[in-house]
Amino acid sequence: xxxxxxxxxxxxxxxxxxxxxxxxxxxxxxxxxxxxxxxxxxxxxxxxxxxxxxxxxxxxxxxxxxxxxxxxxxxxxxxxxxxxxxxxxxxxxxxxxxxxxxxxxxxxxxxxxxxxxxxxxxxxxxxxxxxxxxxxxxxxxxxxxxxxxxxxxxxxxxxxxxxxxxxxxxxxxxxxxxxxxxxxxxxxxxxxxxxxxxxxxxxxxxxx
Length: 208
Known about the structure:
By secondary structure, the chain is of the alpha+beta class. Helix content is 24%, strand content 34%. The protein contains two helices and 20 strands. It has helices at 2-29, 186-206; strands at residues 34-36, 43-45, 50-53, 56-59, 66-68, 75-77, 81-84, 87-90, 97-99, 106-108, 112-115, 118-121, 128-130, 137-139, 143-146, 149-152, 159-161, 168-170, 174-177, 180-183. The strands form ten sheets. It has a two-stranded antiparallel ribbon with strand order 1-2. Strands 3-4 form a two-stranded antiparallel ribbon. A two-stranded antiparallel sheet has the order 5-6. The longest helix has 28 residues, at 2-29. It starts with a helix and ends with a helix.
């Protein structure tokens, strides 16, 4: 039993040496203005004012309204400023706009669209609404765009508004013929079934 315990102690010491020795060796080679990382396997520069350049830390020349990047290898402008050569200039935000997510530009508020260096209001016609992106408009369901207005979709008998909301399609068992829906024939049903089977076979083929 004592031999087993002694062997376990030796293994523990060896593991500790394996973990500690790389850190001790690294400590001798850490350049000025740097420190070992949290793993003790490499060094990293003082993020406040230095960046890594090969095997040493160089002092960063940080312009006004800028800061060292997360990776400590360069600098970037503060939010609300954009890089212009070796300096940061303020983003001039026009009326009805705001700073972008990245902080280096601007974009119009919802309900406005960009026109050169300003934001103009989206003029929404009757039976329409502001689109998902907020910079334009689209017709309400049951209407389609015609120039700068929305016209009502005329749905014939045995039909309904399609999934996009801007047109119509025939009900099941009917087919489109000009601007109306007529009953499908036996031949139509046969062709439709063949088409459905072809689609299913293609889907199965693409699985492999």
